[in-house]
Amino acid sequence: MLGEKIGEMSGKITSQRVLSVADGGLKMESSFQATGTLLGTKVKEIGTYSTVFRADGTQYGQGEGVMMLSDGKTATWTGHGVGTTNKDGTASYRGSIYYQSTPQEWSRLNKVAVLFEYEIDAEGDTHSQYWEWK
User: Fold this and answer.
1) CA distance 28 to 49
2) CA nearest 24: which of 62, 49, 50, 54?
């Protein structure tokens, strides 16, 4: 069951590169930085994900990253999702993230899947929202 909204971030794609174009397929890597809140705590996030562009026009992405509290404590994450790119250059993904956290503020994240919505505008600005999946 979809639980409460636990976070929201805004950021920017900081780099992209082509990983492969084998057999007519395309695989790209994107890195981003964002700031926002997670479980009511201000955080900075850095992440990298790879995206496979599929023949039906959809994309499959998987990535990993780290969220940092202002006191230096961190939580790492891995995730995956599916998405689409629009003709205007915007993109939209939906998926799940799994955290590994030591800060007490986030310890409950070690026990749940977190669902996300991730949007990218044509200029590379990002916006994501997170919900706990109970």
Assistant:
1) 8
2) 54
Q: What are φ and ψ of residue 110, in 5° steps?
A: -65, -15
Regarding beta strands 125-133 and 2-20, do their DSSP bridges make them parallel or antiparallel, or are they unpaired?
antiparallel
Does residue 24 have a pLDDT over 80?
no
Contact yes or no for 102/117 (Cβ under 8 A): no
pLDDT the model gives residue 134: 77
Q: φ and ψ at 42, to 5 degrees?
A: -70, 135
Cβ neighbours of residue 127 closer than 8 Å, sequence gap 6 or more: 8, 9, 10, 118, 119
* 1 pLDDT above the threshold of 70: no
pTM over 0.85: yes
- DSSP structure string for 23-69: GG-EEEEEEEEEEEEETTEEEEEEEEEEEEEPTTSEEEEEEEEEEE-
